[in-house]
Amino acid sequence: MEKTIKIVDMAEADQRDIEYWKTKTPEERLDMVQYLREEYYKFKNEDRKGFQRVCRVLEQEYNK
């Protein structure tokens, strides 16, 4: 198998990326997002699983 390289401008590269991801199923896209998240956390030396949970408690005073 011969490897080839084709140089394209950024607009064409962006369009090719869009066309590529249109051929993937939603499950494949989500799998890639999860993979990229995991790689990012490895790069940043952070150990996280799943989405970060944020909880806020708001208190409201009633004027009666």
Order of helices and strands: HH
Q: What distance lies between the first and last C-alpha atoms, to the nearest angstrom?
A: 80 Å
* Mean of residue pLDDT values: 85
Oligomeric grouping of the chains: single chain
State the helicity in percent bands: 40-55%
Low-confidence stretches: none
Strand content: under 5%
What is the number of helical segments per DSSP (H or I, 4+ residues)?
Answer: 2
Write structural notes for this entry.
The chain is about 50% helix and about 0% strand. It is mainly alpha-helical and about 60 residues long. It has one domain (about 1-64). The longest helix has 18 residues, at about 25-45.
In short:
The protein is mainly alpha-helical. The protein has helices at 10-22, 26-43.
Fill in the keyword field for this structure:
single chain, 64 residues, mainly alpha, 2 helices
